[in-house]
Design goal:
By secondary structure, the protein is α+β, with helices and mostly antiparallel strands. Helix content is 25%, strand content 34%. The chain has 5 helices and 7 strands, in the order βββαβααββαβα. The protein has helices spanning 52-56, 71-76, 82-89, 123-131, 143-156; strands at residues 3-4, 16-28, 38-48, 62-70, 97-100, 111-122, 135-139. Strands 1-7-2-3-4-6-5 form a 7-stranded antiparallel β-sheet. The protein is globular, with a radius of gyration of 17 Å.
Amino acid sequence: MIFDRPDSGDSIDQGDIIRDCTVVHVVSLDPQTPDVPDVQSSLERVVVLTQTCDLAQRKVTQVVVAVAVEAEEIVARGQLKASDIRGPVRAGRVFGWYFLPADDALEIPELIVDLRQLHTVPLELLENLCGTGKRDGRIRPLFREHLAKHFADTYSRIGLPEPYATE
């Protein structure tokens, strides 16, 4: 089992999985009026990515989260086949996606953490959601560090503009 269920009063921690978090998306932007973007909001399940030490020492008021989508939904959308989720995504070979297994006891379905869908949300919002029972669980240490490493690798890789020639 890679998850724990913290008490509703426990502080926010890296690896917390929280439901119904409001995230905001910029849908479009008119270059003539850049100060008035077209925005939409949605309620998403998210995973906290901000380091535990920054959260515990109250060094942040804004928290980086990634959207976590049910694996079934990704298959239903046609983004991936179920076999791809069980194979390359689960093995960590798909850029920017991290697999979390289901946990029936905590009612957590199989999830894909989309490390390319990052949002910054107020710490106070997450604390309020946890206080009202919206925290599904917490990824345990070692597994949490594995996710953090995958997150770091997603943004620290060096991409070339084009493949170099080989003979």
